[in-house]
């Protein structure tokens, strides 16, 4: 029997631009102990569905007549608020996406976990505190009784999410709605949280709705999957059934857009062209038709019903695997500017899906409309190209022939920050050395707080190192003038919304570096801004828009265009796609690779997403708590990891395949990384990873492990006393590790 039954759920939002149907006709059933994965891009209605089930719609939202939400046969829609409060948090609970904004910063975590128990069960303060400590222990919070008096800001992101889960489960609800519970977390913490949710579901016998945009997450943690697009369900089936035979082109596109560890790096990622429709004025027919390669004229005229087999429903006239109709009039699927669901206009992406082995083209062909760029006058014209343009074929992972001199060198860089009085210091970067060669991509991976972004800021000159040196063209960066060679270093920031001035139009944002560097006349600067927009796939009209008028993916394109304004040699990209949907992420990654080939760029890509780094990077460095613990080619790192931390990161990557054998083959055979990253205020002695390492011994606490070479190519090195494979010249295997 179904614990939760939803029929024809329709949510209407009244906005300044008109009424929006954020959810239309959604139905679902959920049995006890079952997990349903709700998947789709941002704005497809996933979170709004969850909020409607909880009775937490925004003030401008309401469910329309005919909608039904029944919990154990009891209708929830239309209940008086007083009765609904007795259900919310007691029988149905929700884990929200961002625990930092969902937890009250003025109240202790003990108070917040205990509050629902006191309200719904009438418990005393002492009983509620004991229950809170019990739940915090259940979700794996270290020393729970001691942490009851802590505030949210004193916890890491992973621990805050555990507190959110404890708060939601304190009354043992029948249904748990988890809205993107791991989106903002590192891959290691994500794996722990998902494992925890699965264990608690089995222990408490509750049903769960897992809302996510990550197909890898639902593949390993959902019994059934329901895919949403433009507020509607477009496909629904058991997880194994869906992944073995996707029928809706949108579902297939989501899966194809995910970077795979074993995929060829020289082949662009498949993408879903365009953007989701404006739901203020939705299309008459299938909402996905303007982005679908299988669409016909029928798709533009009528809404496909949700049909198919009883256990595999899909809403498509021309499903994947079926023959397309004979030639006939086809709808015009060329991208057109369209108004966004928010303010201003949303422009469709310029990148489109391409057959394997063919380059994805921009508006003016493979070069993205850059012809004429060398005919600019003044410094815009005379500035040399950023180096040789490598061919589109994959760059060999192993070096061949003499290597060119490094373009940039980081030599024993140390960066620390003061932390109040008593001489306390945050050890952000501790003696890191690496090199960047012309035209290559160096990926820097690690958990949040390991020093990746700080090192990136040191490299571009936004932070001064306390010790060590950054060399550009063999010269110390500190000795170079800002209007000289230092222009060769530019940064692409993690959050394009906060890094773009909201009071400046895009044209002014792109012209600002030229104006500060006194490059070109006003007319030449404007021409350069138009050229940059063309290169990143945005129309010239975008010059007059403000940042808030664009989607996240389009803002990231603007951030990349700004980084390229001065024709740099090196771009430091700090988490360039972490905040984007998987389909938009693929577009931006393809764009970065195309621009690298056309401009001869050198990238330093900072990310916690190892699949993204594998797709982009020629060489990869792994950082842990301020130190570089392993470095090598992509093949070295992903096929032959030497450091237990690297292998643990790889083992935690979600594999978009529900088959256990395929999931095991897609990850490294290593012990998972457990626990939280130690504080950089007081890092462990010796090997800093030893407190989380299953193989640590006494020497790990006493001595810092040196960097040693692995393999014959000389491209692979790691710092570990007990590596997973013998170092170069050591024929004996490492000593048998002792688990601690």
Q: Which helices and strands, and how do they pair?
A:
Elements lengths: L1 E14 L2 E14 L3 E5 L6 H9 L6 E3 L4 E4 L2 E2 L5 H7 L4 E4 L3 H4 L6 H13 L3 H14 L5 H4 L9 H13 L5 E5 L7 H18 L2 E6 L2 H7 L2 E6 L2 E7 H6 L4 H8 L40 H5 L5 E3 L2 E3 L23 E2 L5 E2 L31 H5 L25 E11 L6 E12 L4 E5 L6 H8 L7 E6 L2 E2 L12 E4 L3 H4 L6 H11 L5 H14 L16 H12 L6 E5 L7 H18 L2 E6 L2 H7 L2 E6 L2 E7 H6 L4 H8 L8 H6 L32 H5 L4 E4 L5 E4 L21
Short description:
This protein is an alpha/beta fold and 740 residues long.
Shape, principal axes of CA atoms: globular
Give the integer mean of the pLDDT values.
84
Report the total helices: 24
Task: Count all strands and give the number.
Answer: 27
- Superfamily (CATH H level) name of the largest domain: P-loop containing nucleotide triphosphate hydrolases
Sheet of most strands:
8 strands, mixed
Structural class: alpha/beta
In helices, the fraction of residues equals 25-40%
Count of structural domains:
4
Radius of gyration: 27 Å
Strand order of the largest sheet: 7-8-9-3-10-11-13-12
CATH topology heading of the largest domain: Rossmann fold
Low-confidence stretches are 330-400, 736-740
- Beta content: 15-25%
Write structural notes for this entry:
By secondary structure, the chain is an alpha/beta fold. The protein folds into four domains: 1-91 and 173-260 and 272-322, Rossmann fold; 102-171, no CATH class; 408-619, Rossmann fold, CATH 3.40.50.300; 640-740, no CATH class. It is 29% helix and 21% strand. It is built from 24 helices and 27 strands. The strands form five sheets. An eight-stranded mixed sheet has the order 7-8-9-3-10-11-13-12, with helices on both faces. The protein has an eight-stranded mixed sheet with strand order 21-22-23-18-24-25-27-26, with helices on both faces. α18 (552-563) runs parallel beside α19 (582-599). The longest helix is centred in the first third of the chain and has 18 residues, at 187-204. It is globular and about 70 Å long. Mean pLDDT is 84; it is low at 330-400 and 736-740.
């Amino acid at each position: 029997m179904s614990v939760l039954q939803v029929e024809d759920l329709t949510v209407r939002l009244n906005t300044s631009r008109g009424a929006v149907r954020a959810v239309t006709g959604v139905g679902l059933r959920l049995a006890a102990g079952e997990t349903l994965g709700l998947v789709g891009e941002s704005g497809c209605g996933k979170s709004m569905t969850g909020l409607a089930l909880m009775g937490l719609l925004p003030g401008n939202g309401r469910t329309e007549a005919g909608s039904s939400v029944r919990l154990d046969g009891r209708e929830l829609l239309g209940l008086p608020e007083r009765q609904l409060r007795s259900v919310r948090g007691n029988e149905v609970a929700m884990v929200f996406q961002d625990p930092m904004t969902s937890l009250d910063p003025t109240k202790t975590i003990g108070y917040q976990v205990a509050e629902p128990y006191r309200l719904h069960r009438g418990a005393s303060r002492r009983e509620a505190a004991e229950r809170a400590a019990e739940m915090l222990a259940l979700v794996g919070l270290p020393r729970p009784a001691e942490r009851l008096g802590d505030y949210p800001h004193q916890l890491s992101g992973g621990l805050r999410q555990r507190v959110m889960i404890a708060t939601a489960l304190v009354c043992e609800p029948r249904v748990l709605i988890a809205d993107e519970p791991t989106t903002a977390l590192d891959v290691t913490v994500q794996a722990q949280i998902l494992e925890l949710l699965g264990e608690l579901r089995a222990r408490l016998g509750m049903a769960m709705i897992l809302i996510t945009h990550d197909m890898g997450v639902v593949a390993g943690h959902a019994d059934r999957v329901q895919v949403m697009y433009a507020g509607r369900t477009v496909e629904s089936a058991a997880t194994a059934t869906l992944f073995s035979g996707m029928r809706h082109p949108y579902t297939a596109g989501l899966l194809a857009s995910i970077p795979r560890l074993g995929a060829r790096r020289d082949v662009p990622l498949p993408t879903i062209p365009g953007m989701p429709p404006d739901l203020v004025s939705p299309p008459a027919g299938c909402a996905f038709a303007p982005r679908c390669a299988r669409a016909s004229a029928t798709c533009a005229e009528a809404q496909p019903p949700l049909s198919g087999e009883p256990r595999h429903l899909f809403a498509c006239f021309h499903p994947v695997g079926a023959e397309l109709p004979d030639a006939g009039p086809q709808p015009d699927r060329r991208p057109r500017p369209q108004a966004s669901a928010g303010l201003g206009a949303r422009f469709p992406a310029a990148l489109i899906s391409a057959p394997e082995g063919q380059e994805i083209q921009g508006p003016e062909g493979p070069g993205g409309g850059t012809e004429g760029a060398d005919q600019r006058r003044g410094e815009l014209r005379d500035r040399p190209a950023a180096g040789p343009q490598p061919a589109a074929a994959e760059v060999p992972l192993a070096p061949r022939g003499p290597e060119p001199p490094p373009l940039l060198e980081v030599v024993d860089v140390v960066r620390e920050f003061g932390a109040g009085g008593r001489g306390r210091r945050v050890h952000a970067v501790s003696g890191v050395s690496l090199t960047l060669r012309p035209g290559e991509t160096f990926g820097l991976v690690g958990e949040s707080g390991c020093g990746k972004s700080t090192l990136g800021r040191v490299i571009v000159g936004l932070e001064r190192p306390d010790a060590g040196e950054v060399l550009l063209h063999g010269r110390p960066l500190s000795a170079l003038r800002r209007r000289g060679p230092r222009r060769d270093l530019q940064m692409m920031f993690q959050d394009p919304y906060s890094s773009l001035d909201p009071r400046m139009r895009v044209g002014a944002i792109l012209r600002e570096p030229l104006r500060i560097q006194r490059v070109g006349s006003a007319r030449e600067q404007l021409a350069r801004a138009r050229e940059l927009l063309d290169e990143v796939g945005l129309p010239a009209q975008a010059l007059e828009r403000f940042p808030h008028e664009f989607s996240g993916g389009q803002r990231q394109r603007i951030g990349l265009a700004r980084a390229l304004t001065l024709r740099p040699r090196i771009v430091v990209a700090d988490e360039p796609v972490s905040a984007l949907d998987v389909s938009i992420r693929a577009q931006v990654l393809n764009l970065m690779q195309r621009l690298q080939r056309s401009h001869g760029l050198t990238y330093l890509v900072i990310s916690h997403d190892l699949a993204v780094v594998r797709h982009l990077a020629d060489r990869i460095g792994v950082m842990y708590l301020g130190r570089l613990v392993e470095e090598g080619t992509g093949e070295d790192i992903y096929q032959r990891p030497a450091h237990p931390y690297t292998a643990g990161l790889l083992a935690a990557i979600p594999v978009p395949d529900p088959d256990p054998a395929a999931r095991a083959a897609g990850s490294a055979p290593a012990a998972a990384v457990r626990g939280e990253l130690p504080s950089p205020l007081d890092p462990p002695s010796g090997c800093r990873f030893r407190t989380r390492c299953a193989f640590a011994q006494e020497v790990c606490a006493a001595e810092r492990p040196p960097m040693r070479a692995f393999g014959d190519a000389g491209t692979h090195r790691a710092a570990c006393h007990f590596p997973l494979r013998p170092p170069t010249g050591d024929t004996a295997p490492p000593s048998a590790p002792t688990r601690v």
